[in-house]
Amino acid sequence: MKFEELKVEQLKRGLSKLELPTAGNKAELQKRLIDEFKRRDIDIGTYEFEYKDETEICTRLTTSNMDLNTMFAGMLEKFADVQETSKANNEKLLTKFKVEVQETSKAKFAKFKTEVQKTSKINNEKLLAEFKAEVQETSKANFAKFKTEIQEMFKIINNRVDGIDRKVADLETNIDKKVADLKTNIYKKEWYELFQKPLVE
């Protein structure tokens, strides 16, 4: 597109690209653009300006919009597929996690149960051994105490029996003495009476 074919809007776009003011009428815009080209030592008469036709631009914009819409729809569809896949994967992972947690919990509970049973058995055996030892010690102490008490009782009984034996012996001695005394007295009386009688009547 040649310089003389440029419209006002195209002139403004050209000036804007060159970072020049875009205010003014068509003649002012043309003069400003010519001066800039001269300053840059460019022949503006032979220069080809690349401006697409507005219709073509609109068509391309519409096509681009349609492409964007199609692309966006595809992206949405793909995003929906990704969401669905993610949901399925999440549900699968959640199910797997639940199963793993259940298996782990089951294994841990079984291990804990075994340890508790083992510990309980050890504690029970320990308590039983301690109880047996205490019973043996108590029985031993009670037997020793009972033996001592029996010995003391037998000692007391023996002392009492010895005392009774001594009393019986003393009583027998007294009885024997009294019997002897009685016999002596009877004998003396008989002799006395005998001597008291006259020899001849």
Automatic annotation (TrEMBL):
Family annotation (SMART domains): SAP
A Pfam family matched in the record: SAP
InterPro entries to which the protein is assigned, alphabetical: SAP_dom, SAP_dom_sf
Biological classification of the source: Eukaryota, Metazoa, Ecdysozoa, Arthropoda, Hexapoda
Domain SAP: residue ranges: 3-37
This protein's name: SAP domain-containing protein
